[in-house]
Amino acid sequence: MISYEEALDLINKEFGKINLATEDVELTESLNRIIAEDVFADVDLPPFDNSAMDGYAIKFNPERSRNIIGEVSAGNFKEYIVGENDAVGITTGSKIPEGSDTVIPVEDVSIENDILLFNDNAKLKKGINVRLKGSDLLKGSITVNKFTMINPSVIATLASCGKDKVKVFRKLKAGILATGDELIPVSEKPSHDKIRASNNYALHAAFQSINQEPVSYGFLNDDRNAIAEKVKTILDSDIDIFVTTGGVSVGKYDFLKEVFEESGVKKIFWKINIKPGMPFYFGVYQTTDKPVLAFGLPGNPVSALVNFYIFIEPAIRKLLNQKEKEVYKATLQDDIRKKDGKKHFSRGTIYNGTDGWEVKSHSSQSSGNYYELGNANCLIITEAEIRNPKKGDVVKCILI
């Protein structure tokens, strides 16, 4: 059995061997994708000297009145040469007329018979309210760095550089398969010893939440031959990641790890010193042109999703050069029962209290209790060597 840190290092190492493919997508379809190249400005930004507000363009000097000789608006530039005693009305974003170097806001002036008069409290300083050509970015400079996640403001920047299409990393394709005789479709009502196959939906959403491409293969009952055939078919498909739930512990019907290896998966490790999610299998299947990373997660719903949060999501973030999830330090508001030597990831609710971050653990930490996980907003981390954290202790938490 290995530690959490050892397991994550091994997973990161194998993720690092993935050759990330790229694709060009329409700018309007690029939200939350990861830029796959440095993007350079093809023009100066702004491309010309322009006004930062509505007002009057003047050539700066101490005089406090000007003759209004015309006006310009954004996209409707007119040629004016602004002399020492002249002013041109101008709107926000409009190109500055020749000879002018300063814009006086409309609220700082009054007009009498086409004569512009500066108010007594008007602030006069050369260059105010003028955005100079190239002051944001010079042509040829990097405007968006590779590995940037595209958000609305990044889209605005890309559009200003003429990028109607953008090169992004192709989403990782993740196959998801659940196993277990107890499983039934979510559309059916459970009876006797059956439960709905919820893991597929939870993991599907988890991959979507980090903008990857999940493919659900449904569920299979504990038929070794059927599972072996399905596993091999999925491994030989075009997926990058294969996630199963169930069948990786030590019970009579827990034969999935053997099926993986019989299918050609090279085992990296099995079992991690954590709770929940100890019976965790990880291996690599090498196709003719790429590796497929195989994860055998526990069948317990909470364990499967927690394993995703603490192993798969961080590894994908690292592969795509994204920031790790922030770890918060919070004051524990109740006791946590922990008597073993495992590293625990307990469900909790973190909030900003009167003296900083505070966190409450949830009453049930059962690996089958999706309800409590759904009401949690964090995982409380208790290191392997710590026993029974008490109210008032400072603990680490990661948001989920």
Model description:
This protein has four domains: 4-20 and 170-319, MoaB/Mog-like domain (Molybdenum Cofactor Biosythetic Enzyme, Chain A, 3-Layer(aba) Sandwich); 24-44 and 140-168, Molybdopterin biosynthesis moea protein, domain 2 (Alpha-Beta Complex), CATH 3.90.105; 50-131, Molybdopterin biosynthesis moea protein, domain 3 (Molybdopterin biosynthesis moeA protein, domain 3, Beta Complex); 327-399, Beta Barrel (Beta-clip). Helix content is 19%, strand content 32%. The chain has helices at 4-15, 152-160, 199-209, 224-235, 256-262, 301-319, 370-375, and strands at 22-26, 39-40, 50-51, 55-58, 65-72, 86-90, 102-105, 109-112, 115-118, 130-131, 142-144, 165-169, 173-179, 183-184, 195-196, 213-220, 241-245, 266-270, 274-275, 281-286, 291-297, 327-332, 343-353, 356-361, 378-382, 394-399. The strands form seven sheets. Strands 7-4-6-5-9-8 form a six-stranded mixed β-sheet, with no helix packed on it. A six-stranded mixed β-sheet has the order 16-13-17-21-20-18, with helices on both faces. The longest helix has 19 residues, at 301-319. The protein starts with a helix and ends with a strand.
